[in-house]
Design a protein that fits this description.
Elements: E1 13-17, H1 21-32, E2 36-40, E3 53-59, E4 66-72, E5 75-77, E6 88-91, H2 98-108, E7 114-116, H3 125-128, E8 136-140, E9 144-148, E10 151-156, E11 159-163, H4 170-182, E12 186-189, H5 193-214, H6 217-222, H7 224-243, H8 252-259, H9 262-273, H10 277-285, H11 292-308, H12 314-319
Length: about 325
C-alpha cells in the first residue's frame, strides 16, 4: 500500500536531466508508476536516444526479488523552453557538473522546484546563490549498474537517500517522497543529508582510488594487501571528514573501518557486498567500468582536500602513484 503525506505538493510532471544510469532507472520506475517523465539531453543529441532502452533488472523493491527484462522508451528533449512546465526538475548529474546544470536551468526556469540527486563534496554556497532553500531538496540514489552491449544491467534497490535541510519546504519534501512511494521506493531519511553526502563521498574516494590502484575492484577485494591499503586510505578519508567538523562516529559506514577487524571488513566486502548476486552484477557491469574520469575525480577531490587542510594522509597519497 502506498503511504502518502497530505501536507505535500503534487508532482506529476518531472524533468530529469540526462540519461545516465540514475536518470534511466528512475525515469523508467516513475513512468511505470504513471508519472509523466521527460529527459533533457545535450542539444543536438536527441536523435541518439530515439531507440528503446533495454533493461535487465534485479528488482528488489518487493519482498520477493524479481529478475526481469524491461524496455524503456523515454520522452526526450534537447533544448529548454520557457513554455514547458514541470512540477519538479531532478538533477542526477556528475558532482562536478551540478553547479553548471543548476546555472543553466535557473536561467530558463527561475521558479522551478528541484531535486538535487547528485553527489556533493563541499558546501552548497554557490547553489544557494541560484536557488532558495525553499525550492530544492537533496537526495541520493541507491541504484547499482551500468551498460554492456547496449543493455543496461541494474540492481533496483527499494531505498533512496533523502533529507530535509534548514529552510527546505516541507510540502516539497513530502511531495518528492510521495512521488518515490508511487514507484515503490522507500526513503532512507538522513538527519543531515549534506553531511551524509560528504561522508559517502569521502569513503568512496578511498575505495575507488584503491580499486584504480589495484587495477579493478575485483583485484582489490581478492588481495589482502590491497584490502588493507583501502582500509588505511579510508581512515585517511575519515581524518579529512573529522577535520571538516563532522562527528564521524555517528555514521555506521565510518565505524566499519574504526571498530571492525580486518577479517570482519574483508568478509563484508567479499561476501556481504560484492559476494551477493547484486554485488556480482556491480562488479561485471558497474558504472566504475565506463566512467573512469568521474571515478578519478572522486579520489582527487578527497585527496586534494586533505592536502589543503594540511593533513597527514600517506595512504591516500600512495594511491596517487598509479592514478593520473
Amino acid at each position: 500500500m502506498i503511504q502518502t503525506n497530505q501536507n505535500s505538493c503534487n508532482i506529476s510532471d518531472v524533468l530529469i536531466i540526462g540519461l545516465g544510469n540514475i536518470g534511466i532507472i528512475n525515469g523508467w520506475a516513475f513512468s511505470e508508476a504513471g508519472i509523466n517523465v521527460t529527459h533533457k539531453v545535450r542539444q543536438g543529441k536527441a536523435h541518439l536516444y530515439r531507440n528503446e532502452i533495454n533493461l535487465d533488472l534485479l528488482d528488489k523493491r518487493k519482498p520477493d526479488v524479481e529478475k526481469k527484462l524491461a524496455v524503456y522508451k523515454p520522452k526526450i528533449i534537447d533544448t529548454y523552453s520557457k513554455e514547458n512546465y514541470f512540477d519538479l526538475i531532478m538533477i542526477p548529474v556528475k558532482h562536478y557538473q551540478l553547479l553548471d546544470a543548476v546555472e543553466e536551468l535557473t536561467g530558463v526556469y527561475p521558479h522551478a522546484k528541484y531535486l538535487l540527486f547528485s553527489a556533493i563534496w563541499g558546501s552548497l554556497d554557490e547553489i544557494d546563490k541560484l536557488i532558495p532553500h525553499s525550492e530544492y531538496i537533496m537526495g541520493y540514489a541507491a541504484v547499482n549498474g551500468g551498460c554492456q552491449n547496449k543493455i543496461y544491467y541494474f540492481t533496483v534497490r527499494k531505498d533512496y537517500r533523502v533529507g530535509i535541510l534548514q529552510g527546505n519546504d516541507e510540502s516539497l519534501y513530502n511531495g518528492i517522497k510521495n512521488m518515490f512511494s508511487k514507484a515503490m521506493f522507500i526513503p532512507d531519511e538522513k538527519e543531515n543529508i549534506l553531511e551524509w553526502n560528504w561522508v559517502h563521498f569521502g569513503l568512496n574516494g578511498a575505495l575507488i582510488g584503491t580499486s584504480i590502484y589495484a587495477g579493478s575492484i575485483q583485484n582489490m577485494i581478492e588481495s589482502d594487501d590491497m584490502l588493507k591499503l583501502m582500509i588505511n586510505a579510508s581512515k585517511d578519508s575519515i581524518k579529512i571528514l573529522a577535520a571538516l567538523g563532522i562527528n564521524v562516529k555517528k555514521y555506521p559506514e565510518v565505524n566499519l573501518y574504526l571498530e571492525k577487524s580486518f577479517e570482519d571488513i574483508g568478509n563484508y566486502f567479499r561476501k556481504d557486498f560484492f559476494g551477493t548476486e547484486a554485488g556480482q552484477r556491480t562488479l561485471k557491469t558497474g558504472h566504475h567500468l565506463t566512467a573512469m574520469e568521474e571515478m578519478k575525480r572522486y579520489y582527487f577531490d578527497v585527496r586534494n582536500t586533505g592536502r589543503k587542510l594540511g593533513l597527514d594522509i600517506p595512504y591516500l597519497e600512495k594511491l596517487g602513484e598509479k592514478i593520473s
